Amino acid sequence: MIKKLIEKIQKTDAPIVVGLDPNLSFVPKALLDRAFEEHGETLEGAAEAIWQFNKAIVDTTFDLIPAVKPQIAMYEQFGVPGLVAYKKTVDYCHEKGLLVIGDVKRGDIGSTSASYAKAHIGKIKVGSKEYEPFAEDFCTVNPYLGSDGIDPFVEVCNENDRGIFILVKTSNPSSGEFQDRIIDGKPLYEHVADKVNEWGVSSMDGDYSNVGCVVGATYPEMGAALRKLMPHAYILVPGYGAQGGKGKDLVNFFNKDGLGAIVNSSRGIIAAYKNEQYASFGEENFADASRKAVEDMIKDIREALV
Q1: Where are the alpha helices (DSSP H) in the chain?
Q2: 158 close to 205: Cβ distance less than 8 angstroms
Q3: N or C: more exposed end of the chain, with fewer CB within 10 A?
Q4: How far, in Å, are 21, 78, 110 from residue 224 at the CA level?
C-alpha cells in the first residue's frame, strides 16, 4: 500500500494529506441550518452537517492531493450517527480516488488489536461472506503495548495490502512527558523508532515499508534524527499550520529522493475560511478557501524541498 501512496504523491507532486477533523464550530451556519431542518438538533443532524461539510471540501480539493486523514474521535463524539458519517466520508474519498489514513490510534493486547486491525484495514468474515468494515487504506497505531499490539496490524497489512503509521514522536506539547524520557542512554522515542524498523522489515513494499511512523512537525530537530534512524519508514507529519509547523521546518523529514514523508494539515485547511488570510472568501465559499489553503501549503513545502 505504501507504494500506492508514493505513486499518488508523485502524480500530484504534493506530499500532503488533508485532515478531515470536523467540529461543529467549523461548519458554516447555512450547512448547519439545513441539516437541523431535516434532522432536528440531534446527533443525526450534527452528523449530517459534518458529512456535508466534508463532502464540499473533498469536492474542491481532491484533484490536488493524494490522501485524506479523518480523525475518528471527531465523528465518535456524535455517537453512532457520527460513525456513519465517518464511513460515508471514507467511502466518498475512495470514490474520488483518494487514499484514506484512518487516524484511529488503536493498539491493545493481541486479540483486541487483531479486532481493531480487521475493523479498520482488514476484513471480517460473517457466515460465508467477508466484509471490510471501515476500509481505510492506512491507520494510526499506538505502540505502548509493544509487539503484542503491533504484530496483528502488520499481519493484516500483509494479508490485505494495507499500511500503518506508528506513533513515535507526537506533535502535542506534553508529548515529552513520556516520549523524551532517557532510557539506556537515549530517549524513549528512539527506542520506539528501533522497533518500527524491526516491525517494518516484514512488510516492505519496494524501498519503503507499509509500517510507517508519526513524527510531529513541531519537533524538526528530532524529526531529522528519526529520519536517519528509520530510513525505510514513511513519516506521517502532523502539526503543520495551526500547530506551528512550516515547510522550512520539514526538509529533514524527507529522504534525498524527495520521498519519505507526508505532511498533514487539518484545521488550517478545513477551517481556512475562519483565518484572516482567507477571510475574503467568506463563509459561503468555505470550500474555495480550503482549496486555496491547500495550494498555499503545497507551494510552501515544494519551495522548501527545492
Answers
A1: 2-12, 29-39, 43-61, 73-76, 79-95, 110-121, 147-160, 176-179, 188-200, 220-229, 267-270, 286-305
A2: no
A3: C
A4: 27, 38, 32
> Of 105, 195, 246, 274, which is the active-site residue?
105
Residue 246: pLDDT band (50, 70, 90) is confident
pTM of the model: 0.96
Identify the sign of the CA torsion 204, 206, 207, 211.
Answer: negative
Task: Tell me which residue has cell 526538509.
Answer: 251
Residue given cell 474555495 in the structure block: 288
Beta strands in the chain (DSSP E): 16-18, 67-68, 99-106, 124-126, 129-131, 138-141, 163-169, 182-183, 186-187, 204-205, 208-215, 233-237, 261-265
User: How far apart (Å, rounded) are the C-alpha atoms in residues 283 and 27?
Assistant: 9
Written as nine digits, the cell of 15 is 506530499
Residue 285 CA to residue 271 CA, distance in Å, equals 11
**What does the pLDDT look like over 90-132, one tens digit per residue?**
999 999 999 999 999 999 999 999 999 999 999 999 999 999 9
Contact 97, 4 (CB under 8 A): no
Pick the CATH number of 2-301 from 3.10.150.10, 3.40.50.720, 3.40.50.2300, 3.20.20.70: 3.20.20.70
Active site residue 123: no
**Measured between alpha carbons, how far is 16 from 180 in angstroms, rounded to an integer?**
27
Helix-helix angle 110-121:147-160, to 10 degrees: 30
Task: Determine the Cα–Cα distance for residues 111 and 126; give it in Å rounded to an integer.
Answer: 18
Any idea which residue has 490510534 for its cell? 105
Q: How far apart (Å, rounded) are the C-alpha atoms in residues 213 and 166?
A: 4
Question: What whole-number distance in Å separates Cα of residue 242 and Cα of residue 21?
Answer: 13
| Separation between Cα atoms, residue 253 and residue 289, nearest integer Å | 28
